[in-house]
Structures are given as structure tokens and as C-alpha cells.
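job 3f2a | input accepted
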Amino acid sequence: MGKKLEEAKANDQQVNFEKLRMSSEVKVERGLGCVTAKFVGPTNFRGSRVIVRGVRMMQVSWDHAKDHDGNFEAAVQAYANRYKVGGTWVRASLPGNNGYVFVRTVAAKDEVES
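job 3f2a | predicted structure (114 res):
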């Protein structure tokens, strides 16, 4: 993983993904490379959950044993596992507390040509 990516992840800063994509350290994948995740509160029929939207949508129940960040990361990981998407996911906040965007990245040196 590149130094810029690690610093942004450690500081939980919003990442300028266009600059990051253009750098030689990281390549943003096409296809299932970007998803949004948003918390949805309970209703009369369903409990709290996280909705992950990318090419497809998936709902993951809120796990009260985990913290806020852990629930979002688990939801995106469940989405990635279900649709067989590998790589590292980087999180950034959406404006107005509308959830998060997760972008899948692969370090350029780790890229495998098929």
C-alpha cells in the first residue's frame, strides 16, 4: 500500500481520489471499484442496518457489538465477499453526514496481469 494512501487512512481524511488514482502508487479499479454505505434506522419491521450500494445493493444488519466504523467496514466487506471483489477499500465521508464512499484500490506493485 502506498505511503499517501496509508497516511490518509491513518488520519481518516477525505482523500482526493483523482490525484490518488493518477499517482504511480495506487490504481483505482474499474467495475465494482466504488460503493456507498449509509446507515438506516429501525422501522416497525426491520432493525437498524447499513445499505451498501454499488453496481448492486445489499443490506447488512447493524451489529450492536461493533462500533460505528466496524459496522460500516463489515458491511462493505460482506458486499465484497458476496460479489467476489478483492482489493483494499479506502473510506471517505460523504458531505452532509450522508454516509461514506468506499473506493477499492490495488497497489500498482501488487497488480496482477491476467
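job 3f2a | Confidence is low (pLDDT under 50) at residues 21-26, 110-114.
job 3f2a | closed
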